[in-house]
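Task 17 of the worksheet. Students: predict the tertiary structure of the chain below and write it out as structure tokens. Keep your answer in the requested format; marks are given for formatting as well as content.
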Amino acid sequence: MPTIPGIDGPYRLFFYSFDCREPVHVHVERDDATCKFWLEPVALASNYGFSPRELNRIRKLIQEHHSEIQDAWRQHCG
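Model answer:
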């Protein structure tokens, strides 16, 4: 599970290697909560434990770091 470096905050943004056949996306976790966002366009794919308010924060974080996340995806998945 490669973690995307350089994104500060309480969240860990990462990919699963077996997900590379899916459209570009990122997984996010904090404590026991996890979610998945599609990147093109940025949209919530699944959520397990995050509140709507926190999902909005995560969406903004993903939008702010969109190019870095996409670059990390391409480096990992090809």
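Marker's comment: Residues 12-77 form one domain. Residues 39 and 67 are 10 Å apart (CA to CA).
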